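User: I'm designing a mutation panel for DNA ligase-like protein and want to avoid disrupting the core. Could you give me a predicted structure to guide residue selection? Please restate the sequence first so the numbering is unambiguous.

Assistant: Good idea. Sequence first, for numbering, then the predicted structure tokens:
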Amino acid sequence: MCAELALGKLGSSYDLIDLNVGNAILINAIADVTEKTIESIKYDYDIFGDLGDVIAQYHRSNSAFLSMNYMYNKLKELSKYCGKGANKQKSIIIKSLLQLCNNCEAKYLVRLISGKMKARVTEVSILEALVIVFKFDHENLQVAKKSVLSAYATCPNFEKIISSLFKFGAIQTQIECNLTPGIPVKLMMPQPLNEIEKLKNRYSLEEMNYLQYSCESYDKENNKILPYHEIASRKRKHEKSKFTCDSQIHICILAFDLLYFNCESLLNAPYRKRRDILKQCFKEVNGEFMFVASKDFKIKDENIDKLINEMLEDATRNGCEGLMIKMLDNDSSYTIAERSQKWLKIEKDYNNKESGSLDLVVIGAYRGTGYRCGVTP
């Protein structure tokens, strides 16, 4: 809980609690607690750009006590309100919390609720601090840090990490906090490749596999992948139509990897094995669940440059951003939370022959409000 709050979040990174509290609710709550007018609060907000700084100027210290557990539970309660009358209930909870705060607490509570904590703390710095506090005396500090960072990449849940650190120490935490269904791992990231010609210099004659980028939005009528930005126009999660058939943007799952199978982690298995199990255990349903288009090749293949260029053109023509090039056998494990040479990505914009530049002139700008204030047009 403390780790999450230090990051200015409620919940784990994969299961964040959305308070959905706008400035209007906060301003009304601040007005009720401080007995200031809404107009004066808005005026000061335009100056400071931060409602936390605004309430710190008004709020008076008191002798009341606000525990972290109480605050955390009340904010979780606040997040459950939706629909008619939700704003009123949220305002009541916020006011009750502010009345228990001193100036400093009120400042950071408002920032937390508005999603603008500004703590400038990263997950890595928190994990390193936890290692220093909880590691056993016989454990090497650098080894312990590496183990905990690896554990968090596999299981990004502070509650589980801290519990394991307390019971087993830092090094054992990497074993205890392993791949768990329902908890997404940190992504493996590819290296960008800006010239196809450099591919031969990156690898030996190892067999490779290249894949189209997966896109989620799909045109079922024309059996065509839609451009990636189309997903942004899909209804938001709280809108009912997302769960009904009348949603205008259809989603198709495009599968390309399998990390866990029959209670066994496949992170260290070669990519060829992971891909084979994926295709053996799942069946395609057109427009609903499909495998990404792929083609196997070797670096020593003749006309490899022409082959990749043709696939790149085909991928972009069909609505994809480009290609993924992956190792198939040797050294092809899934490397969590790292940018690895095992995967390369090539997009049309990366290719020097395809990219260009534009000379542009700024003709206007918005002054901005809140924390964006101060921009001169």
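For picking mutation sites, this is relevant: The chain has 14 helices and eleven strands. The radius of gyration is 26 Å.
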